[in-house]
Amino acid sequence: MPYVHPTLTDDALGAVETQFGVTLPDDFVSLLRVQNGGPIRFTLPNAVGELIAGIGQSFPSLTHYELADNQEYVDFSLDGLVPFDGDGHWYNCLDFRNNKKNPEVAFIDVECNTQRRIGSSFANFLTQLELALETEMVVRNVVDIEDARAQLETVFGASFERSVSNVGVPYWMCKTGTETNACFWLISNTVARGYSGRNPDSFQFEGEALLFPELTHDAVIFEAPETRMESYAEQLGEAGLELMGIEDAAKAT
User: Fold this and answer.
1) CATH topology of domain 10-131
2) I want to staple 224 with a disulfide (CB 3.0 to 4.6 A). Which of 31, 56, 184, 195 is the partner?
């Protein structure tokens, strides 16, 4: 949540466009008017990227990426690039170098002195993004998370321990063996609207929200190491339960 800026204003947008001497593409601005920056669940296959920066005073903002200092490390021009994601070594950028009105999207790596086009436009870049859900599934044929816990405790002969993730979401972990990766987690799709502070259990925002808006409120998320997922699915199947991908489960509801 700290990465999400207040509602985008015309004044803030105008100031950024004046600073860079460009007009940001309509698709990019439209997205920031829905939510002014923040982490995204979608990624570009075989590429890096974890957020789309908004326009605001705190990090990450379009105004906080400094590329000019890296010019000496690369043999291509950085002038005309507007980064919207990056970690200091690599950046995803709106690329105005060849077209001031319709920028491409470029990936640059200032450490490796490489660049490549990853979108003919920002709209094209968005169409290539895929939902990054490699280790998350939905438990089917359960009523809610309490029912899922009870049934899975019987299936695996082990009890759950409650914990809280680093972003404040409570979850239940079940150890199915002595190895480090012999475990899985259950998460309710309905959680508090937000969390704040060092102890999320004590600082929960009023109201509720869905972790996956495309799923129902009573959906139960099953997460496990990728190497264990197939064997867990077989064990659940034998007990009349089913693991289904997020997108497939959304279509089935």
Assistant:
1) SMI1/KNR4-like (3.40.1580)
2) 184
**Cβ atoms 128, 45 nearer than 8 A:** yes
pLDDT tens digits along 8-61: 999 999 999 999 999 999 999 999 999 999 888 788 888 888 889 999 988 889
Phi-psi region of 157 (alpha: psi -120 to 50; beta: other; left: phi over 0): left
What's this model's pTM, rounded to 2 decimal places?
0.67
Domain residue extents for the chain: 10-131, 136-252
DSSP 8-state class, residue 216: -
Q: Which residue has the higher pLDDT, 133 or 95?
A: 95
Q: What letter would DSSP give residue 62? A: G
10 Å CB burial of residue 210 (0-12, 13-18, 19+) is middle
Grade residue 133 by pLDDT with cuts at 50, 70 and 90: low
Q: How far, rounded to the nearest angstrom, does the alpha carbon of residue 122 sit from its chain's CA centroid?
A: 18
